[in-house]
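Worked Example 4.2. Consider the chain below.
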Amino acid sequence: MAQDKFSKVAIYPGTFDPITNGHVDIIKRGSRIFDEIIVLVAYNPDKAALFTVEERMEMIRESLSDIKSVRVDSHSGLLVDYLKLSGASIILRGMRALSDFEYEFQMALMNRRQTREIETVFLLSGFKWFYTSSKLIKEVVSLGGSVKALVPDNVHQKLLEKYNVKPRDNNRR
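Applying the procedure from the previous section yields the following structure tokens:
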């Protein structure tokens, strides 16, 4: 779907397996900058996903239902191809610690090399989410730990169901 040439639409790509409160923070803050954000669930064959693309999209929609300027979609090809199809020219990315910089910088340069009209905008993660990652969250839950304050409530419930573990309250927020 082509966008109005004056609207600022950003694509926020990721595997979101699962979406975390760090992702939600970036999306909420990005929604104050952009007219629309398309959260793009990417299929990455190099990553073994816990949740299907459809499950991830459903969790994201439920987690972000209060933000009207957000849409959720999926794509399995090159990100630049999706941007061309959608009419968007902005990629939104979040950065946590310095360790994210080199990878994100390489990706931004490669995307720009593919299509000169693409701009990548980086938002620094909120300080509470610097060391939060989907991979770490899955590992903690799989070992019986609590991640309740690190993911939206619906995602927490789905993680407990997927790993067949009982909720654990450790009073951490």
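The chain has one domain: 9-130. Residues 99-114 form the longest helix (16 residues). Compare this with Example 4.1 before moving on.
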